[in-house]
From TrEMBL:
Keywords annotated in UniProt: Oxidoreductase
InterPro entries (alphabetical): Sec_Metab_Biosynth_Oxidored (IPR052228)
Designated name of the protein: Uncharacterized protein
GO MF annotation, one: oxidoreductase activity
Length: 212
C-alpha cells in the first residue's frame, strides 16, 4: 500500500479510498439490512482501532498529512465516520479494531522493512480474536441488541468510544481491550462538531463520484 499522494481516477487519495471511503460506503449501504437482521447486528472494521490521533480538519482526505501522522489521522476519520453512521443505525454494534501485526501478504511484500516474525500475531489466534469480537456480549449495540455469545470470565460490557459502557461503538486495540488513550482526542473533536463535518464531507464525495 503506497504512502505517496497517489489519487484514484475519481481524484480521491488512494490511501484514504482504501482505508476510509470504501469502508464507510460498505457500512452505510449495508446498515439497513443489518439493522433488520435476527442474528447479531454487528460490524467489525479491521483497521487502526486505538490508534486514533490528531486530525487535520482542513485536509480530511489526508493529501497533505505527513507519513508519521497519517495513521492517526485515518484511524480517527474511521472511528468518527462510524459514529456518524451509528446515529442512524443504533441497533448495530460497531467495532473498529487493530489486530496487531499479522504476517499477511502486505508484510511479506515489504521486504525493505525489518521485522521479527516471532513478534507477529499468529493467524489462528487472529481469527479467534475476531470471532470473539463478532459474537461476544461485551460489545452491545446502543439499543435492542440481539443474541450474542457469552464467554466465561472477563466478559463484562466494554467501554465505548465516548468513555461510557455499552454505547455501541468500540475502539479495540491489539490486546482485545477498549483503548482509553485516544478518547480525549475524540471527545474534543466531537465538541468541535467533527462527526457532523466528516459526515457532510463523506456524503459530498459519494454524491460527487456516484451521484448518491
Amino acid at each position: 500500500m503506497s504512502l505517496d499522494k497517489t489519487k484514484t481516477s475519481e481524484h480521491v487519495h488512494l490511501l484514504a479510498a482504501l482505508n476510509y471511503y470504501s469502508r464507510i460506503r460498505f457500512m452505510a449501504n449495508l446498515a439497513t439490512l443489518i439493522q433488520n437482521a435476527t442474528s447479531p447486528r454487528r460490524i467489525v472494521n479491521v483497521g487502526g482501532g486505538g490508534m486514533e490521533g490528531l486530525l487535520d480538519a482542513t485536509d480530511l482526505p489526508g493529501l497533505r498529512v505527513t507519513p508519521d501522522m497519517i495513521r492517526g489521522h485515518l484511524s480517527t476519520l474511521i472511528t468518527l465516520g462510524i459514529e456518524a453512521i451509528q446515529k442512524t443505525a443504533p441497533k448495530i454494534s460497531f467495532i473498529h479494531n487493530y489486530p496487531g501485526t499479522v504476517l499477511t501478504g502486505l508484510y511479506r511484500d515489504m521486504e525493505t522493512i525489518p521485522f521479527d516474525p516471532s513478534l507477529a500475531m499468529p493467524l489462528d489466534e487472529c481469527g479467534e480474536r475476531h470471532l470473539y469480537l463478532a459474537t461476544s456480549k461485551r460489545y452491545p449495540s446502543l439499543v435492542q441488541d440481539t443474541v450474542t455469545v457469552r464467554v466465561q470470565g472477563g466478559d463484562d460490557v466494554a467501554i465505548g468510544t465516548t468513555g461510557e459502557f455499552g454505547t455501541g461503538v468500540y475502539s479495540i486495540g491489539s490486546d482485545g481491550e477498549a483503548v482509553s488513550e485516544s478518547r480525549a482526542i475524540l471527545a474534543q473533536l466531537r465538541q468541535q462538531g467533527m462527526v457532523e463535518e466528516i459526515q457532510r464531507h463523506t456524503m459530498g464525495e459519494f454524491i460527487r463520484i456516484l451521484g448518491s
